[in-house]
Amino acid sequence: MFFVRSASARDIPAIRDVLAETWRATYAPFYGAAKVEEIIADWHSEKAIKASMERPDGEFLVADDGKQIGGVAFASQSLETKAVSLHQLYVRPECQGLGIGRDLFAEIETCFPGAHTLLLEVDPGNEPAIAFYQSHGMAETGRTDNCGKGESGIPAVIMSKTLSG
């Protein structure tokens, strides 16, 4: 059984493993192995994970069963707009279907009291993720040609949900 908790610095290598495994399994068919490895090295480096953990406006969570980290989620809040951006929600391929994504998503929704909106970006070809987010009340509200950091050239569906905050 996995329990959701706040991530700590000692989790960084395991978090990186989850992100790398999930990106390879999910995105190599879309972008090719070389592009996926480039993104993993940049977006999911230990330095990038540590920087996310240290953000005062963010929350970094892990799903832990005492033996392994089965999933991760990271979100941050804009205090000006009262919007929360879900930057990462990934579950190890062998742990998918166990409710880890559901539990991480539910916890992120409660981490930012006063927030009005939850936003995320997802690859338009990642139909399982889009269906997951729709089943949790998210709806498409736009599109971008530059998912994630900077001028990535990666298209994404922008999804949002109104929060009770």
How far apart lie the N and C ends? 30 Å
Percent in strands: 25-35%
Order of strands across the main sheet: 1-2-3-4-5-7-6
The helix tally amounts to 5
Low-confidence stretches: none
**Basic shape:** globular
Structural features, described:
The protein has helices at 12-31, 33-43, 46-53, 100-110, 127-135; strands spanning 3-6, 58-64, 69-78, 83-91, 117-122, 139-144, 156-162. With 165 residues, it is α+β, with helices and mostly antiparallel strands. Strands 1-2-3-4-5-7-6 form a seven-stranded mixed β-sheet, sandwiched between helices. Helix 1 (12-31) packs antiparallel against helix 2. The N and C termini lie far apart (30 Å).
Short description:
This protein has 165 residues and is an alpha+beta fold.
What's the arrangement of secondary structure elements?
Layout: E1 3-6, H1 12-31, H2 33-43, H3 46-53, E2 58-64, E3 69-78, E4 83-91, H4 100-110, E5 117-122, H5 127-135, E6 139-144, E7 156-162
Parallel strand pairs: 4-5
Antiparallel strand pairs: 1-2, 2-3, 3-4, 5-7, 6-7
For the structure shown, list the relevant keywords.
165 residues; 30% strand; seven-stranded mixed sheet; 5 helices; globular; single chain; 36% helix; alpha+beta
